[in-house]
Specification:
By secondary structure, the chain is mostly helical. The protein is built from 16 helices and six strands. It has three domains: 13-105, Fumarase C, Chain B, domain 1, CATH 1.10.275; 110-361, Up-down Bundle (Fumarase C, Chain A, domain 2); 365-398, no CATH class. It is 63% helix and 5% strand. The strands form three sheets. The protein has a two-stranded antiparallel ribbon with strand order 1-2. It has a two-stranded parallel ribbon with strand order 3-4.
Length: 402
């Protein structure tokens, strides 16, 4: 049983499982981050005299053992532990004795969880930014190779005016650059250390060194207001998932374009055969499942964002156990976004634009606006030019075929 809670009676086993939820599984992702934060906290306790040198050395050794075991998937988090934070403390108490019982001095599990999450989130944003740059590079490569190809532009899902591959894919590149800025902003908001805010009211009596632990952990600054540290739980996760939703919105719309443009009826682009699947019945089929799944994952990520916002809306100030359930949506939403960026980067890496089919798809009627503006350049008022070209197009449509 966990050493975290002091109680005379044994907890009901079912209730214990209900309270722990999935944390003993999800927290495998947080193990290395909690070890880093616990190490910085232990060193701070040594600086202010709570731990002696031998105790600090023992804790450093114990935390290194946990980190190494976790790296190889050997550090167990049981349902009785509830989460990685208690599992770590239980291990340190068992192996380091008195020092293990001292390490929680000057912190609550609240700021302990927050700190591990913030460290995880910083790395997650860095991974997302890197994947976004790779996606942008893939877009740029197609634009460089085939950007001059003319193809139809669409409004209301109807052919409208000619455009180019460069303009078409460049629009998604511009969206991705905006997403890069948004993620960078989220990273700046995440880059504030909550360690030392404890349960949301600071640490009385002890002169803890918050700036020192923040610097050791690589945070830009401390999260100053201790109550805001608790208020930020769920808020920061929702902001990160909102940025992921924006990334996924661009990927989903590009996936829709590619799904349509790669059909036999359109044939403007061809997808890499290695990224298509077959049919269990129809031997000739080549299915673009990867694009359909990217398109669907936008809704998955938006749903995870919605879960976090719904869970945290209306909570009173201070810590509320509801926020425990924001962890799953956070991990799932970030993972889905990273996977989708990788998938679309692979698709773009093998995408072929059929210049002949694109040219054939740009019909004379799509140059109607161009013809109207040529009349304007000759001095005809725009509305008169518009009506003249519209009449010509109507007459052309009414001509009998053949």
């Amino acid at each position: 049983m966990s050493t975290l809670w002091t109680r005379a009676d044994e907890p009901d086993p079912w209730l214990q499982s209900f309270l722990a939820g999935d944390d003993h599984v999800l927290d495998r992702q947080l193990l290395p981050y909690d070890c880093r934060a616990s190490l910085a906290h232990a060193r701070m306790l040594a600086r202010i005299g709570v731990l002696d040198d031998a105790e600090l050395q023992s804790l450093e050794t114990g935390l290194a053992q946990i980190a190494e075991s976790a790296e190889h998937g050997r550090f167990a988090i049981t349902e009785a532990d509830e989460d990685c934070h208690t599992a770590i403390e239980n291990f340190l108490t068992k192996t380091c004795g008195e020092a293990g019982r001292k390490i929680h001095t000057g912190r609550s599990r609240n700021d302990q969880v927050l700190t591990a999450l913030r460290l995880w989130e910083k790395d997650a944003v860095d991974h997302l930014l890197g994947a976004l740059v790779a996606y942008l590079d893939a877009l740029y490569a197609v634009r460089q190779a085939q950007g001059a190809v003319t193809l139809p532009g669409y409004t209301h899902m109807q052919a409208a005016m000619p455009t180019t591959v460069d303009v078409w894919l460049g629009s998604y590149a511009d969206a991705a650059r905006d997403d890069h800025e948004l993620l960078s902003l989220v990273r700046r908001l995440v880059d504030r250390c909550p360690l030392g805010t404890a349960a949301g009211f600071g640490v009385p009596v002890l002169a803890i060194d918050r700036e020192g632990t923040a610097a050791e952990l690589g945070f830009a600054e401390v999260l100053a207001n201790p109550m805001y540290a608790q208020l930020s739980r769920g808020r920061v996760e929702a902001l990160l998932l909102a940025a992921c939703s924006q990334v996924m919105l661009g990927l989903s719309r590009l996936a829709s374009d590619l799904l349509l443009f790669s059909t036999r009826e359109f044939g403007l682009v061809a997808l890499p055969p290695s990224l298509c699947t077959g049919s269990s019945l129809m031997p000739q089929k080549r299915n673009p499942d990867v694009l359909e799944l990217v398109r669907a994952r936008f809704h998955v990520v938006a749903g995870e964002e919605g879960k976090v916002r719904a869970m945290t809306a209306g909570l009173m100030s201070g810590y509320n156990r509801d926020v425990q359930l924001t962890k799953g949506p956070l991990f799932a939403g970030v993972a889905a976004t990273l996977d989708s960026l990788k998938a679309m980067t692979m698709v773009l890496g093998g995408l072929q634009v059929d210049a002949d089919r694109c040219a054939a798809a740009v019909t004379d009627e799509m140059r109607a606006t161009e013809r109207a503006l040529k009349l304007v350049a000759e001095g005809v008022p725009f509305r008169d030019a518009y009506r003249r070209i519209a009449a010509e197009e109507a007459a052309r449509r009414d001509q009998p075929k053949g």
